[in-house]
Design a protein that fits this description.
The complex is a heterodimer. By secondary structure, chain A is α/β, with parallel strands linked by helices. Chain A is about 50% helix and about 20% strand. Chain A has helices spanning about 10-25, 35-45, 60-75, 90-100, 110-125; strands at about 5-10, 30, 50-55, 80-85, 105. Chain A is globular, with a radius of gyration of 13 Å. The N and C termini of chain B lie far apart (about 110 Å). The chains are: A alpha/beta, B alpha+beta.
């Protein structure tokens, strides 16, 4: 069964590009453009991996991760691994992501192979 | 006893007193010894004169006349000897003196026969007056030859002396002429020429002045000496003379009145006049001093005031110039120089001077004998004084040489706590007068005040230098901090641009790599690449629009449309503001809002205020709005930037534009942004102000003179702040 990946980014050209890429690689990507939409998706669907942009309006990546984890904990569900996409200028946000102990970080603009390798690694680790 | 007897007595007393005084002043000096010898000769002549005048019998009178003639024979050679010593010609002209002295000895034996003194006769009211013998005329020729030759030596030497020396010799010459002429008024009557010896009293004045010429330096100005001596003689001639006249000429009247106790009258008169005499002398002397010393008192007062004024001068060079000028002008001296001790170079350097001579040395070494002497003795040194003493003291020869090299008539040490800080060199007084004891006392006080003022100036100089250096360091630090602030702002802006451009770059890279992997030309991917590339272009264009430099130099003012600046800035910042959930709106109904200004600087102000507004909103809420309003009225253009952020407390509003003042957490800002904004707006002849409410927001208002309102801009001087 294809792994279900939720992509959260307010930038449409990124989410479209990533959806296309991941679909070609045999994943089942779902794209949303905000943290609130992500939380709604989590409540209604199951996912194997979250890929979130750290810098988003309204609810940024950190707040979205925190909210999702809280929900999963309350619901007694297993946590979902997270990969955070961050720009080089987001140092403060990056530090928050480190503190949250997310599974991986990727800097924009990223190499596609590297991106795919990171996804595979995180999914393998989560299976263990 | 008549006036002549009294004059003889006075002359004799004067000669003895002055002779002893000068001798014991410096027994080893040739000039002192020769003067004392002259005084002795004059004393013999004077006392003999007195006793002769009061003699009642011919035999006594003849005895005293012979003795006074011995004195008058010795006087010319002794006088010649004195002049040779005074002019320091004793060694060269020894033969001349010996010849004169031996010649005079030839005449002495003839005093005791009638070849010099033929007889005594009553003449012109005098009971016993000599008739000249055969040899008397040759004696008189010898007498006057000696005197004339002495005067010739004085005249010849005159030009080689210093101006002070010339002044002294001038008075010696006048006194000599007056003394000898005065004394010579005795001679006509020897030849039955009916001229009374009225000039006799001039001998005493002659003696006084000659004494001064030797001991001159530390006494007083020669005109003061003459005046005081004249007053003294006049007063005591009356004090002594009146009782004697009463007891002689008025004796008969007194006897008629007082009987056998007639002597009480002269005695009482003498007691009365004797008591009154000193007071009259002091009173007349004070009156004379006030006139004669008027000039000296004038400049001594000026120097006393200068001593107070100089402590207010903090600049060392100005202080030394002031002192040199004050002394030179008030005391009326030819030139002056002030040597200041340079502690680094360890030598004295000439720092100030008025009319310095061409050969005036620029430096004095620490080991210079004059410096050593001044440091040790801590007293002024006068050239004339050491010049007199250099003949018998080798140290003074060296000091004299050093003083000459420095063109110094007087050297003053300025000493504070045993440290010699300055040496003041003074030239001759223009009047030719010597530096008196009073002068030296006043100069010494001035020198001490100079030392104190010098130390003060040194201290202030050091403090001023420290302050200048620290100010320079602070300005440099401020520049660095402003640069750091600018870089921080640039960093923030760059971060926003980087983030904005990263997104389309990510889309490009992802799609390109997808196409490369698949080997197919996917239309959707190509369209995404195109869109992302265009997005990059837009971002770069926004960046260029924001960072645009005018064609001219960045610091130059030019015509600017504030609406364009605001639009460009907002376009540039909009993306990152939206990332922080901040919306920004612009209300600028007019087409243009023109001002005279610097593009980059005004952009910096708008950027800074907008970023501050964003931070203020983020402190209390997740999202917010920043409103920018442009308006213009009465020649002014106004920009209002309003946020709905945390606001600024009332007690901080007055400090909000202070450098390094910040309401942000530590590490979140240097606190220079608004300070820089205020400086920029002030430079644009505008005003920046704010009003704020806690938790409701802040409105920053920037007012700039419109393009056609330069006249108002010129009147407006400062930016301000409102609460």
């Amino acid at each position: 069964m294809a792994k279900r990946i939720l992509i959260v980014d307010d930038e449409a050209m990124i989410t479209k590009s990533l959806k296309k890429l991941l679909a070609k690689e045999g994943f089942a990507p779902t794209i949303v453009s905000s943290g609130n939409e992500a939380l709604d998706q989590i409540k209604t669907n199951d996912f194997d991996l979250l890929i979130l942009d750290i810098r988003m309006p309204q609810m940024d990546g950190i707040e979205t991760i925190t909210a999702i984890r809280q929900y999963m904990a309350v619901e007694g569900k297993d946590p979902i691994p997270e990969i955070v996409i961050t720009g080089y200028a987001d140092e403060n946000k990056y530090k928050c992501a480190v503190d949250l102990k997310v599974s991986a970080y990727i800097y924009k603009p990223f190499d596609t192979n590297e991106f795919l390798d990171t996804i595979k690694k995180v999914l393998e680790q989560n299976n263990k | 006893m008549g006036f002549t007897a009294v004059s003889g007595l006075l002359n004799g007393i004067t000669c003895i007193l002055m002779g002893a005084f000068v001798y014991f002043k410096n027994r080893s000096a040739e000039v002192n010894k020769s003067y004392s010898l002259l005084s002795l000769g004059l004393a013999v002549w004077s006392f003999s004169y007195f006793f002769w005048q009061i003699s009642n019998d011919r035999q006594s009178a003849m005895f005293w006349v012979r003795l006074l003639t011995v004195g008058s024979i010795l006087i010319p050679s002794f006088y010649l000897n004195f002049i040779l010593s005074l002019l320091k010609l004793g060694d060269k002209r020894k033969k001349i003196f010996i010849t004169a002295f031996l010649s005079s000895l030839i005449f002495i034996p003839f005093c005791f026969n009638n070849l010099l003194i033929r007889d005594l006769k009553p003449k012109l009211g005098f009971k016993f007056w000599p008739d000249a013998g055969t040899l008397y005329l040759p004696f008189l020729v010898f007498f006057f030859l000696c005197v004339i030759y002495s005067c010739y030596l004085i005249i010849k030497r005159f030009k080689k002396l210093s101006s002070v020396g010339q002044n002294q010799i001038k008075y010696v010459f006048i006194a000599s002429v007056a003394g000898f002429l005065g004394g010579s008024t005795n001679y006509p009557l020897w030849y039955n020429i009916p001229i009374p010896p009225i000039g006799n009293f001039l001998v005493s004045i002659h003696v006084f002045i000659l004494a001064y010429a030797i001991v001159k330096y530390r006494l007083m100005a020669i005109n003061v000496v003459i005046t005081r001596a004249g007053i003294f003689l006049a007063v005591y001639t009356v004090v002594l003379g009146l009782p004697f006249v009463l007891s002689t000429s008025g004796k008969n009247h007194l006897v008629n009145i007082l009987g056998p106790n007639w002597w009480i009258g002269p005695l009482v008169l003498m007691a009365f006049l004797g008591t009154l005499g000193p007071f009259v002398y002091i009173y007349l002397r004070k009156k004379a001093d006030a006139i004669l010393l008027k000039e000296q008192l004038r400049y001594q007062d000026i120097l006393k005031l200068a001593a107070v004024d100089m402590t207010r001068i903090r600049n060392l060079q100005k202080l030394l110039d002031f002192i040199a000028r004050t002394i030179t002008e008030s005391v009326c001296i030819r030139h002056s120089a002030i040597y200041y001790f340079n502690p680094e170079a360890k030598r004295f350097e000439m720092k100030a001077g008025i009319n310095p001579k061409k050969n005036q040395p620029a430096v004095i070494d620490l080991k210079n004998e004059l410096v050593v002497w001044l440091e040790k003795n801590k007293l002024p040194l006068a050239y004339e004084e050491i010049n007199d003493r250099s003949g018998n003291h080798p140290d003074f020869v060296i000091l004299e040489k050093q003083m000459r090299l420095l063109n110094a008539s007087l050297a003053l040490p300025c000493i504070l706590e045993n440290k010699l800080l300055n040496i003041i060199i003074l030239g001759d007084k223009l009047s030719g007068n010597t530096y008196t004891t009073d002068d030296l006392d006043n100069f010494l006080i001035l020198a001490k005040e100079t030392a104190l003022a010098t130390e003060n100036a040194q201290l202030y100089g050091k403090i001023e230098e420290d302050i200048k250096q620290r100010t320079k360091d602070l300005i440099e630090l401020q520049k660095q901090l402003i640069q750091a602030e600018k870089l921080a702002t640039v960093g923030t802006l760059a971060g926003g641009v980087a983030h904005e451009i990263n997104n389309p770059l990510t889309a490009i890279l992802t799609n390109v790599q997808m196409l490369l992997r698949s080997g197919e030309l996917d239309k959707e991917s190509l369209e995404m690449i195109e869109e992302a590339t265009k997005r990059c272009r837009t971002i770069v264009q926004k960046l260029m629009a924001y960072a645009k430099k005018p064609l001219a130099e960045t610091a130059v003012f030019s015509k600017i449309n504030l609406k364009t600046i605001i639009n460009n800035t907002v376009a540039f910042l909009r993306y990152q503001l939206e990332q922080d959930n901040i919306k920004i709106s612009i209300k600028a109904p007019a087409e243009a809002y023109l001002v005279e200004g610097n593009h980059n600087e005004l952009e910096q102000v708008i950027t800074n205020i907008i970023l501050n507004a964003k931070d203020a909103i983020k402190q209390i809420k997740k999202s917010g709005i920043i409103d920018i309003t442009l308006s213009q009225a009465e020649g002014w253009v106004k920009i209002e930037i309003e946020d709905e952020g945390t606001g600024i407390p009332e007690n901080m509003i007055n400090r909000i534009f202070d450098p390094f003042f910040t309401t942000k957490d530590v590490g979140k800002g240097l606190g220079l942004g608004l300070s820089i904004c205020q400086s920029i707006i002030k430079k644009h002849k505008g005003k920046i102000s704010l009003r704020s409410n806690i938790n409701r927001g802040t409105v920053f208002t920037v007012t700039l003179p419109g393009l056609n309102n330069i006249s108002i801009a010129n009147i407006l001087k400062d930016g301000g702040r409102d609460g």
